[in-house]
Specification:
The complex is a heterodimer of chains A (303) and B (397). With 303 residues, chain A is mainly α. Chain A is 62% helix and 4% strand. The relative contact order of chain A is 0.11. Classes of the chains: A mainly alpha (303), B mainly alpha (397).
Chain lengths: 303, 397
């Protein structure tokens, strides 16, 4: 009988016979459960290896774009977090009321669970009923809602030059900065509080302006901690998975290497490919670490 | 020179006040007031008037009388130049202006002649502005999270700007989302699992970390340097790289979907940090005390139990809190290893909830509040310990 030739919603009967040519009753078939069994070698214990996966990683996986996105995300996330960290530390280090409370509040994004914060941001930025878009439309700042997490590019024109901004990636970077500047803030604040007050008093006697004091006293004192923070945060941001996964799932131009590990290994269920991408990450990381210990490893011990 | 610093003073201070008033307006819009225009130019010009009046009056009137009368006049002007608004909104404007004029106290026509006064003005107001800005940017998402959990999906779709809470409703109506996630989504169970995993991780980690840190700090043994550097290297090793090998091995061993498996992974990832943090503290304890212990005939375990642990309780507390925080917030491993709702942790449960597009957002936010609150409470209560924990060992996350 040919099932493929059946018409739409056509009924037909299938007769099943056993090896002796007797027809089997429908009820006996239903009463038996199908048994499925299989046997295969344990892939972890086999000794056949292949470099096929690495070839695929480098040639069939948009590797250049993947790498560029990862670097873009990592670099701007790190630099942004450090800049905001310096600003916040500079603020809190002054004699203001409620300084300890301010320090506590500033650390909230860092200590909060990433799941809760990421979903709150998705809600906030939602184009249809998100608060941010609704506010901007309400005050006539934009005409129609922008899909901040779902749009890959946005065209902007500044001074007559038109350029494309990677919108979703930028939003994710801002989330990253928001969540991790507290850490930079904490380290820089600890360093700022250790600067002897006499340095500033001497500068006052010499008639230095606030900007001069910042450039000539504060900045040299915090360069060591900044360089350490930069390298450490760079390595951690390079491996960041949860934040991007929860915000965009790696869609609309936010696919970084760690997201790719997940997509290859679990979404496509190709454990081999996932592992190959992981190995690439480890190789890149080892390179960073060697550079890190060459450049500032010695200085790290002094702080 | 005086004219230049006066202009800078007027512009910067008015800019600051305009920003605060705009934030106040945005927050009131979220309470259901229908403002559609920020009126920045109008507000900015009356702010300039206010600052100018303040400097011109100088010290002729008592400070308190001056700020009250000026703020009062400002609020009336603001009321007439803007769209109709309820009294509580104008009261807010009055209080903001009062705060602002009080901050202006040290400025007068005389003080504008000082050296570098324009830079000082800029620094002063940037500080004030920065504090308001940072507080707003950080607290706003938390505020939205909390308030959304008390609203309903329909109300939010009709007017995404109305976050006002209706307190006339009964309590059970107001906390409906929380009842629902506990009853139909089983969040009570997830809280228990999350707490068990986190507290278990803390206990197991400390059990291993204290002797290990003591060994690294005090004892001399073969390969000690190698061990202490490898601790740091393991610590820097990314979780995303470990996930695939662990996944395959755990699948074979049947450790997926089990709390025990999660406990192993969490302990393994937090142990290096804990050892690193503790050994730094142990090294700072004077060795003489231990020598005295040895004289009394204590062995290593006696020394650790009777001397080291009592002396380093603050450090142990901060390590414990830090490890608890990592374990409670952890998401990656719980996403990979837990598939059945029977063994979900809180983070994984919320992610599972959001996977269903039809889950109303207030349930999602109620879940988020439940997972966030314990951590924030612990953080606020033990801030001192946690901050020292964060600075001494942590770059993780």
């Amino acid at each position: 009988m040919e099932i493929g030739g059946a018409k739409f919603r056509e009924n037909f009967e299938i007769t099943i016979k056993n090896n002796y040519g007797e027809t089997i009753d429908k009820k006996t078939i239903k009463s038996q459960k199908p048994i499925l069994s299989g046997k295969s070698d344990n892939p972890l214990l086999s000794t056949s290896f292949t470099l096929e996966n690495f070839k695929k990683v480098f040639y069939e996986n948009n590797f250049v774009e993947l790498l560029l996105t990862t670097f873009y995300f990592t670099f701007f996330g790190t630099v942004g977090a450090i800049i905001f960290g310096i600003l916040a530390a500079q603020l809190v280090n002054q004699n203001i009321q409620g300084r300890t409370y301010m320090r506590g509040i500033l650390l909230f994004p860092y200590v909060g669970p990433v799941v809760a914060l990421a979903y709150t941001w998705t809600l906030l930025l939602d184009p249809n009923s998100g608060t941010l878009n609704a506010l901007l439309v309400n005050f006539n700042i934009i005409e129609k809602p922008i899909n901040l997490l779902g749009q890959k590019y946005i065209t902007m024109s500044i001074l007559g030059f038109e350029f494309k901004l990677r919108l979703a990636l930028t939003t994710v970077i801002f989330f990253e900065i928001w969540r991790y500047f507290p850490l930079a803030f904490l380290f820089i604040l600890a360093r700022l509080q250790a600067i002897p007050q006499s340095l500033y008093e001497a500068a006052d006697v010499d008639g230095a302006s606030p900007i001069q004091k910042f450039i000539h006293i504060t900045l040299p004192q915090i360069t060591a901690i900044i360089s350490i923070l930069f390298m450490i945060r760079f390595i951690w941001n390079f491996n960041k998975f949860e934040d991007i996964f929860l915000l965009t799932g790696g869609a609309s131009g936010t696919r970084t290497l760690p997201i790719n590990v997940y997509q290859q290994g679990f979404a496509v269920s190709d454990i081999g490919m996932g592992s190959a991408v992981s190995i690439v990450i480890v190789m890149l990381l080892l390179t960073f670490m060697v550079i890190y210990f060459r450049l500032i490893g010695k200085r790290a011990n002094e702080v | 020179m005086k004219f230049k610093s006066l202009t800078i003073f007027l512009i910067i201070s008015s800019f600051f006040l305009t920003c605060i008033l705009s934030i106040w307006k945005i927050m009131s819009t979220l309470q259901g007031l229908s403002f559609t225009n920020l009126n920045i130019t109008t507000v900015f010009s009356i702010c300039i008037l206010l600052s100018l009046a303040f400097v011109l009056i100088g010290k002729k009137i008592h400070h308190l009388i001056k700020i009250f009368s000026l703020s009062f006049l400002f609020s009336i002007l603001y009321f007439y130049l803007n769209e109709a608004s309820p009294y509580w909104y104008i009261l807010g404007v009055f209080l903001i202006t009062l705060f602002f004029t009080d901050k202006l106290k040290k400025y007068s026509m005389e003080s504008l002649k000082e050296d570098f006064i324009s830079e000082k003005i800029i620094f002063d107001f940037i500080t004030l502005f920065g504090i308001v800005f940072f507080a707003f940017v950080i607290l706003f998402p938390f505020y939205i999270m909390l308030v959304t959990s008390f609203k309903t999906q329909i109300a939010l779709l009709v007017n995404p700007l109305d976050f006002s809470l209706d307190f006339t409703k009964s309590l059970s109506e107001l906390f409906k989302s929380y009842f629902v996630i506990f009853e139909t989504y089983n969040f009570g169970r997830y809280i228990l699992i999350s707490s068990a995993v986190s507290i278990g991780t803390v206990i197991v980690t400390l059990l291993f970390a204290i002797p290990a840190a003591y060994a690294v700090a005090r004892l001399n043994f073969f390969g000690k340097n190698f061990l202490s550097t490898s601790i740091l290297i393991i610590y820097m090793f990314p979780a995303i790289v470990l996930v695939i090998p662990l996944y395959t091995v755990f699948s074979q061993l049947g450790l997926r979907n089990s709390i025990f498996g999660l406990l192993i992974v969490y302990t393994a990832t937090t142990l290096p940090v804990a050892i690193y943090m503790l050994q730094g503290y142990f090294k700072s304890i004077p060795k003489d005390i231990e020598d005295a212990g040895i004289m009394d005939g204590q062995n290593w375990f006696g020394i650790i139990l009777k001397i080291i642990i009592p002396l380093s309780l603050p450090a142990i507390a901060s390590v414990a809190l830090y490890v608890f925080m990592i374990a409670w917030n952890e998401f990656l491993f719980s996403l990979m290893f837990l598939d059945s709702p029977k063994s979900f942790t809180l983070s994984r449960a919320i992610q599972y909830l959001s996977g269903d597009a039809e889950t109303p957002r207030q349930y999602l936010m109620a879940g988020s509040v439940i997972v966030t609150l314990p951590v924030l409470f612990i953080f606020i209560y033990f801030e001192k310990y946690l901050v020292s924990g964060l600075t001494s060992g942590s770059v993780k996350g």
